[in-house]
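Reviewers asked in the last cycle whether our approach scales beyond single polypeptides. To address this, we selected a multi-component target totalling 227 residues and predicted its structure end to end. The input consisted of the following lines:
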Amino acid sequence: GESVGLHLPTLSVQEGDNSIINCAYSNSASDYFIWYKQESGKGPQFIIDIRSNMDKRQGQRVTVLLNKTVKHLSLQIAATQPGDSAVYFCAERQEGQAGTALIFGKGTTLSVSS
Amino acid sequence: KAGVTQTPRYLIKTRGQQVTLSCSPISGHRSVSWYQQTPGQGLQFLFEYFSETQRNKGNFPGRFSGRQFSNSRSEMNVSTLELGDSALYLCASSVAGRTDTQYFGPGTRLTVL
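The resulting structure, written as structure tokens, was:
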């Protein structure tokens, strides 16, 4: 089964609000997490990443928080815009014998109304 | 710099046929990974290639195979197609794979009738 999941399949917000998208992971040994945004008809687009030796990382309008105690990851989007409407996935890096795979959660669909 | 490109973008096949999908990574990227995306199972890892060698493999049947060429371009093949193989197949490239960010292409939408 999947080791990464999201709490809510959908989230609806008003333009200008702050959005918080949550993700729970199960592998306490995971050391790298990524958030991707996928718009309709496109592949996932990298938003921000965080390593397990950090608990917070900020980008442009986005912040990722990592709580290793409860194995929880969140993506905060400030001043949400209609262009932020998309499906958001968290992903956990899993190391194989020699290579790497990303294990994705199911995704949260963010809808922004103006 | 051009992004990851995948061809074809759309494909319709019938059960029992085979299909080959192509992926050209970002220039300078040597690792290519493939993922299958379906509404029911979400995004699932298929395999990863680096320097023409498969380094990691997901939990898919042997009907799914791939290869990588010396120029880092990659192909994946699905033989004896089943209805359940209908999905969006995504390719992602990274510089070396292990610790680098993976950048995704737009995907190939495969429909099996």
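Chain B touches chain A through 27 residues (CB under 8 Å). We regard this as preliminary and will revisit it once experimental data from Aim 1 are available.
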